[in-house]
Amino acid sequence: MVSNRCKMVVKEVLKEMGLHFIIVDLGEVEIMETLTDIQREQLKISLLESGLELMDNKKAVLIEKIKNIIIQLIHHSEETIKTNFSDYLSEKLNHNYTYLANLFSEVQGTTIEQFIILHKVERIKELIIYGELNITEIAWKLNYSSIAHLSNQFKKITGLSPMHFKQLKDKRRKPIEEI
User: Fold this and answer.
1) Structural domains in the chain, sorted by start
2) What is the DSSP letter of 76?
3) 22, 66, 94, 112: most buried by Cβ count inside 10 Å?
């Protein structure tokens, strides 16, 4: 679960099944009842019908938690990111970062760092399109050491500089008066 909409879907599925939840959070659900095998299978099917997946494997759950923490911090947090991701993940998940990084790479076929960079670039695109922040403010908000660092990562992933991306975005839209 990576959005509030996903949480709503899970809550609805649990209610339909007559299950009472204590917590429905991003990637995590705690219910009051002990599930029977039949209920677990029914829950799995209901979630799949909604495009979600029930995960029982502890490693898969940990991978999802890593992803959810990163997505939450980059896309859904209004706070300025002023922390080292490796320390933050280790603290949040109570695991050594080396273990988390190796597990993530093994299962996902990419590094946590690359996953973070891809999400930061998507967030940069979003912030550029909204136009509420300039590149300096975006770099500060996403904890880049400099505008040059942000620009280099952005160009490496997209093939465009942030300014060129902004110009393309501006060229795609025309004011009503010009149509």
Assistant:
1) 1-54 (no CATH), 115-172 (1.10.10.60)
2) I
3) 66
